[in-house]
Amino acid sequence: QLPWTETWHTSGRERKKDFEQLALLCQQQGQSSLRVGEGEVRLLGKLDPGQRAAVEAALSRLPASCLWDGLALHFSQESFKEVLASDGQVLSTSAGIAVGKQDIFLYLPQLDAHVIAHELGHVVDQREGQLCLRPPWGQAPYLSRYAATSADEDLAETFAVTMLDWRRLQALDADGLEKEPARDKKLAWMSRVCPDLVHGPY
């Protein structure tokens, strides 16, 4: 197992692995790729047939315009970021982390389509110049409780929900929020960066 680096924050302790080392470890464990539209997504790490099928199914629900050549998904069997209590007890484990403009690290025991889409949202934002730093991100309405924690999580959650859970957006319409300016701006951004927007089988 790779060593941890621990830091302290006002909210508690956090520890994480070195992502350069983790990338090398995943690469040593296995390399393959998936053709999605005109692009090819690199898969790094050891995936069993069921996990690979789940990844392929998740990517098929995402717009090909956001799955560009060079995008790399790193699959880790070991946890790479954790929040700890003062006594060292693990409070939470990150299911995924986006690093830069093309790398996404995914914790295999918690792998699912929403995590992949959420982290892809962070990568798309990085490629767009961190639009999360400007309104309407960080403004209500939010599509999940987690989206309300910060502007960058608002963008990533909005991206994931737009791609995978169109019914939740329809529920916002039912609540009379379709004229909410912040919501309209968020969805307009989604349509611009993903012209081939996929709403799923809803």
Question: Topology of this structure?
Answer:
Blueprint: E1 5-9, E2 12-16, H1 19-29, E3 31-36, E4 39-44, H2 49-60, E5 72-76, E6 81-84, E7 90-93, E8 96-99, E9 103-107, H3 113-127, H4 151-164, H5 166-174, H6 181-193
Parallel strand pairs: 4-5, 5-9
Antiparallel strand pairs: 1-2, 2-6, 3-4, 6-7, 8-9
Structure explained in plain terms:
The protein has helices at residues 19-29, 49-60, 113-127, 151-164, 166-174, 181-193, and strands at residues 5-9, 12-16, 31-36, 39-44, 72-76, 81-84, 90-93, 96-99, 103-107. With 202 residues, it is an alpha+beta fold. The strands form two sheets. It has a five-stranded mixed β-sheet with strand order 3-4-5-9-8. Strands 1-2-6-7 form a four-stranded antiparallel β-sheet, with no helix packed on it. The chain starts with a strand and ends in a 9-residue tail after the last helix.
